[in-house]
Amino acid sequence: MANCKPQKKVLLLCGDYMDNYEAMVPFQALQAYGMAVDAVCPGKKAGDYCRTTVGDSGAYHGYQTYTEKPGHNFSLNATFDEVDFSKYDALVIPGGRAPEYLAMNESVLNCARQFSDSGKLIAAICHGPLILAAAGLLKGRKCTAYHALGPVLIDAGAHWIEPKTMMDCVSDGNLITGVIYKAHPGYIQLVVKALGGKISGSDKRILFLCGDFMEDYEVSVPFQSLQALGCHVDAVCPKKEAGDFCPTAVHDFEGDQTYTEKPGHNFILTASYEGLDAWSYDALVVPGGRSPEYLALDETGIALVRKFMQSKKPVASICHGQQILAAAGVLKGRKCTAYPAVKLNVVLGGATWLEPDPIDRCYTDENLVTGAAWPGHPQFVSQLMALLGIRVSF
């Protein structure tokens, strides 16, 4: 991670059908920055999982509210009944549907009250503030949330800040609130700074090479993690323009011989591919998923990868992304890992294969960072940060 020994310890309060982004992005981003993060759920123990939902804008379909689809199975790494709340520096509460029933759990409310009574940081996003309202912690406090929560939070005595955009966040003393996952860059940055973190070296421009049905986490987690550090991050896709979107795929490991796939979010691109000034960027990130299969046939994408590798600028590629690197002929004599099924591409591409054991292990070889799958994001992002000279210190 960014620091050898975690300087801060964060508790992530989970529940079944929490939003997948609102759980995984802060969970992995804060680890990448050098923090220890424990994910717990009442009634569950370490090694169990919580089901998540993919909440996305219904506007794409003409709906009046967001859509909800099945997401990943989020693995817990600590047991709720065994954790000592006093050992943590912050409590982070994802949104989704989980807060609706967690707000009726007295042990959850006592947890939130302990953090509040001790003056420790509490960060809640989307529907997460419902728990704080039920615990009686919002009286006179400024907060925001998903806009539909306005009436109940006002009734709870909160000083409601109506969100103007889905990226809005509010900070009031030891309380940080955000509207939805789109607010993560500002929301996570506020968490880092509230915990005394100082970010240096983040004046970087980073480019993501995207495609339809890239893996959901493998684009969103590094994208928002780097934005939260203050980097300028752009996402592009061949034959698409700024404002277009790429549908993503939710890949999970559920006991089958290979990963499962479910529909993910519609990921909005931030820049147009045509006329792109690639030289203005300091690093290239290549997500995995199914998109690399066909992006490996796109000559413009191949040329883009070659430019970055030949210039010795950092390139970070994960999962199936290495299919593009192999097709570009830039792996000869390099050491790298990938999703195990992509080993053939890597070896035939002339690289020395590095076994991803465990699956979250990532490697850096000169300017190249590679990982096997989204569980490796904390190492993946941290190693890219190191190449870019970005540091979070406490």
Automatic annotation (TrEMBL):
Stretches assigned to the DJ-1/PfpI domain: 8-192, 204-386
InterPro entries assigned: C56_PfpI-like (IPR006286), Class_I_gatase-like (IPR029062), DJ-1/PfpI (IPR002818)
Pfam families, per the entry: DJ-1_PfpI
Protein family per UniProt: Belongs to the peptidase C56 family.
Protein name as catalogued: Protein DJ-1 homolog D-like
